[in-house]
Amino acid sequence: MPSDPYVTTPSPAADPVRHVHRFLRALARLLAAAGLAVDAYVHAKLADRYDPISASISQGDLFRIEAGLAALAALLVLVWHRWISDAFAWLVAAGGLALLLVYRYVNVGKLGPIPNMYEPVWFHDKWLAVIAQAVTIVAASFLLLTGGYRWRFTERRRARRRVE
Questions:
Q1: CA distance readout (Å), 146 to 11, 37, 79
Q2: Which long-range contacts (CB under 8 A, 24 or more apart) does 103-112 make?
Q3: Is pTM beyond 0.85 here?
Q4: What are the 10-residue block averages of pLDDT along the chain, 164 residues in total?
Q5: Which long-range contacts (CB under 8 A, 24 or more apart) does 115-118 make?
Q6: What does 106-149 look like in DSSP terms, one character per residue?
Q7: How many other CB atoms are found less than 10 A from the CB of residue 154?
Q8: Total H helices, total E strands in the chain
Q9: DSSP codes joined into one string, 35-70
Q10: Which residues contact 2 (CB under 8 A, 6 or more apart)?
């Protein structure tokens, strides 16, 4: 079917919904990266303080691992816009928050090479880590639920229908 030269289809760049979607996803990426950066900073800052608590591996080493994973996840969320980097950010934040809350409220004891990390008190850095991880979970959840791959797939499908 020949196309009518007088009928114009709006370009994807002119779609206001798409602009809002892209802005919200960019904002979510920044929030997730900021939350992960704060999480990395807090864990790196506290690592030396927790070195004496150890079994086969010290709690300070576990804090350094968490800081490294959070820093890597923040970098990936910012530079590699794929669902796998969003999922990795979500897993790092959710895992860190879950462990923080478990070891705050439950005396798990020593688990193999992992020391007893029970600490039934709240302090500023712990609150900061909880807030940062919660913000990251919300932002990464938004990124996962509104994945850009859906937009591209839909656009390809629409383009194929226009050609046919």
A1: 21, 23, 18
A2: 110/55, 112/55, 112/56
A3: no
A4: 55 70 92 97 93 85 95 96 94 96 92 86 93 97 82 64 64
A5: 115/53, 115/54, 115/55, 115/57, 115/58, 115/59, 116/53, 116/55, 117/53, 117/59, 117/62
A6: -----BTTB---------HHHHHHHHHHHHHHHHHHHHHHT-HH
A7: 10
A8: 5, 0
A9: HHHHHHHHHHHHTGGGTTSBSSSBHHHHHHHHHHHH
A10: none
Smallest CA-to-CA distance from 36 within 60, 72, 62 is with 72
- Contacts with 52 (C-beta within 8 Å, 6 or more apart), sequence order: 58, 60
Task: Give CA–CA dist 106/128, Å, rounded.
Answer: 20
**How far is residue 114's CA from residue 37's CA, in Å, rounded to a whole number?**
25
The pair of three-digit structure tokens given for residue 9, joined into one six-digit string: 């289809």
Tokens standing for residue 149: 């791959």
In angstroms, the Cα distances linking 161 to 4, 7, 157, 158 are: 16, 16, 6, 5
**CA–CA gap between residue 144 and residue 84 (Å, rounded):** 9
Which among 142, 138, 131 is positioned nearest to 38, based on CA atoms? 131
Length of the chain, please?
A: 164
Phi-psi region at 16: left, alpha or beta (left = phi > 0; alpha = psi -120 to 50) = alpha
- Tell me the C-alpha to C-alpha distance, in Å, between residue 162 and each of 10, 15, 17, 74, 155: 13, 18, 21, 39, 11
